[in-house]
Amino acid sequence: MNHDQRLRDQLTKLLEGGLAFQPVGELFKDITAEEAGKTVPKLPYTIWQLLEHMRLTVNDILEFCQNPDYQYLTWPDDYWPQEKAPADQQALNKSIAEIQTGLQTMIKLVQDPDNDLYKPFPHGEGQTLLREALLVAEHTAYHTGEVIVLRRLLGTWK
Description:
Elements: H1 3-16, H2 24-28, H3 33-36, H4 47-66, H5 89-111, H6 129-154
Helix pairs in contact: 1-5, 1-6, 4-5, 4-6, 5-6
């Protein structure tokens, strides 16, 4: 196996989670709409807001990677929802499914040998697929940790 494929495989493991942080699928599988909308004193966000932020961010990064006509979003307004709770369980499940789909899409981009991991995107400012994959992994790990803390504070996580 060559070095390029080894790197792609390690990026895939990082994006899937489970090495140093809880895989998204396991963490999110039992969250209810009620739990997702609960507030915790002195924290500025709910689980729902974190999930939606993760969904919006991974979708934005994928859009950047795949669309040469990408338009930058406005920080923080376009990345954080105002609503503290999902409308219902279906909305929550849809958000979770989109996060998982986004991670799988990034894995497909990383695993495609036709995609140069090191070549800067022509429409960017030096960003590469490698950098964007690492950003998705780091962002997911960071906010996954926050969701675990919130779930523990709410008494819904072991």
